[in-house]
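User: Predict the structure for this protein chain, please.
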Amino acid sequence: MKSDIDRLMRERELDAIIVTGGEEFNTARYYLSNGARITHGAIFKVIDEPALLVCNRMEVEEAAKSGLVVQTDVELGYYDRLKEAEGDSQKATVHFWSDVLARLGLSEGRVGLYGAWQVNKTIALYKLLAAELAQYEFVAEAEGTLIEEAMLTKDADEIRRIRSVAERTNAVMAIVWDYIAGLRRAGDDLLDDGGRPVTIGDIKALTRRELMARGLEDTAMIFAQGRDAGFPHSRGEADMPLQAGQAIVFDLFPRELGGGYHHDMTRTWCIGYAPPEIQATYDRVMQAFDISVEAFGLNKPTHLMQEAVLDHFEGAGHPTIRSHPSTMEGYVHTLGHGVGIDIHERPSISHMRKDELCQVGNILTIEPGLYYPERGFGVRVEDLFVVDENGELVSLTPFRKDLVIPLKDDGGEHNDE
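Assistant: Here is the predicted structure, written as structure tokens:
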């Protein structure tokens, strides 16, 4: 949590941290600024002191919403440094940062760097910092960073926001289910009220409209049918007509509009009816889902949940990434991951990570799946969970887990034997 920042700085022997970046969405800056909508601003924090958000003049009001101490780059002398550097913005930035750190009482020490910027500009800035400011040691953490560690557990306000995104996402999923259930079937084709075949692109457009109406935005949803469903991250083809009896993997992971917190859920559907092979695979995946939930325990290693699922699938004869690391079918991914401002955060639920524990405040997915593209289907089911203050694993995804969407006016015939 953000309240852990000073402790984490102490553990990493950091005297200060700087979070910077450009106009693109910036997870670290968004997190530490409490979601302030700013561009090009930087956050400076000396250990055990309040953070300072430095912004440009146009964004003072937006920056103030962060609740941090706010000053403009003009007040702090950036443009004087830019004039001295004859317009060289990177050189000006380096000496401006030194000015700000000194103003905050840090004339030397270890400074952690975080944020998001173009990689070439980041490398050039880092080199210049090292060359020009020998009094500071600039630290770039590669993995398990201070920011990632803080984001590992969510505070009450973050959980409230994620719950809200979850409620709205579940409502959109229900609208899509109801729309599909109201289609008319002709053979295995699905037709709208005007007799036009409905496509995956139509379903995605409906989903995006409903998300936008609820203050959410799509982040490249998956709606993959048939063979495409056999590839876990196949997005689905917009011009493909919906077909009855085909497995559809619908993975919906929107976030608050303009950037913010996510929800993540997946359902597998067959419209009208499910062929026996898909139904049997679905039942196996649901068993794995239940097994993984039962394997959860507060302060237990997350890998035990993944290993329980691996044992289950392997025992039923399915290849997995443990038994066949290069497999392209069967169980080809890990069980889950953390969710927050980024769609993939810690903790990881993987048999390859032995150092992750289930903690109060975790927001995480559980998403077992089986994939057989050459047999024309894939199956995945995913809920988002919070580890609540009682140490219980609580689903934020109450939407039904039925495989078959029954059609309200099913005039077609099929052979599912």
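The chain has a mean pLDDT of 96.
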